[in-house]
Amino acid sequence: MATLVWNAAAAADQSSQSKPTLTAALVASFVPFEMKKKGDDRITGFDVDILKNVAKRAGFDYRVRSLDFKGIIPALQTGSADIALAGISITQEREKVIDFSDSYYLSGLKLLVRDGDSSIQKLADLAGHTVATKIGSTSYEYLQSHLDDRAKIKPYPNSSSMYLALMSGSVDAVFYDAPNVAYFARTKGKGKVHMVGKLRAGQPYGIAFPQGSKWVEPVNKALAAMHQDGTYARIYKKWFDKEPPKQQTASE
Fold it and tell me: Which stretch of DSSP H or E encloses residue 5?
C-alpha cells in the first residue's frame, strides 16, 4: 500500500532534533492538494504547505508516507500514521473512528463531462449513464444515496484513472471533489472536458489523527495562527491563484 517514504525530518535544521517526528500520510495524486512533479519523488501541493507550517508551529517534524486514499483511515487506526492530509472530508461516520482538526478547506462535489456532450447538465441527467468516482470517497457515497440504480456508478482507485476513463469514453461523466475537478479541467483536461451543474454538498476538509491524539489541539492553534497572520491566505493564493473566500460556501 505504501509507495513512498520521504523523511522530511532529515532535511530539517539540526536545532529541531529534539522535536518528535510524526508519520504524515498523504495521497500523491490529489491535485492541487498533493502531487509529484515530473522527475521528482517529493510530494508538493496545498496540503504539503499547510503541513509544513502546522508542523513548525505545533512543534513536530514529520516523515511522509504516500498511500492510496482508502488506506488513510486504516493507517491512522493501526498507528502506522500519526497525521493525515488528503482532502479528507469531516463526516459523522469518520468521526466515529478518527479525530479531526478544525476544517482548513471547504470543498464540494462537482460533475465533469466531455466537451461536446450536452446530454448531461445536472446530476439527474446521469440516469442511464455511467459515472466515475473514487473508491471510498464521499462522492461515491453521495452518488449511491442520490442515484440508487438509475445510473451505473464506477469507482476508481485514483483521480487520474477516472479522468482518463472519461476522456477515452469508458464513462460518461466524473463526479468528485470540486477543487480537484476544477484543476483538471483547466490543466490536462482543458479543451476536452468541462464542469456542469451545481456545486453539491459542502464538504469541510480536516487534518486527521488517530483517536485521542494529543496533536489535535496544537494543530488547531497553528491553523488559527496561520489565518490570523496571513500565512493561510498566501498558501491558498499560491495554489488556487486567488484570494481565499472570507466564508466558503457550497450549495446543495
Answer: strand 4-7
Q: Rounded to whole angstroms, how far apart are CA atoms 159 and 182?
A: 12
Separation of alpha carbons 72 and 66, rounded Å: 9
Contacts of residue 11, Cβ cutoff 8 Å, sequence gap at least 6 = none
What are the φ/ψ torsions at residue 127 (nearest 5 degrees)?
-55, 125
What cell numbers appear for 197 in the block?
A: 451543474
Which stretches of 115-219 are assigned E, i.e. beta strand?
130-134, 152-156, 173-177, 193-210
Q: Which three cell numbers, joined as nine digits, stand for 78?
A: 493501526
- Residue burial 202-226, b: 16+ Cβ < 10 Å; e: rest: bbbbbbbbbeebebbebbbebbeeb
Residue 208's pLDDT is 98
Are the beta carbons of 69 and 137 closer than 8 angstroms?
yes
- Predicted confidence (pLDDT) per residue in 198-220, tens digit: 888 778 999 999 999 999 999 99
0.70 surpassed by pTM? yes
Q: Which residues pair with 24 in a beta bridge?
A: 64, 83
**Are the CB atoms for 131 and 171 separated by under 8 Å?**
yes
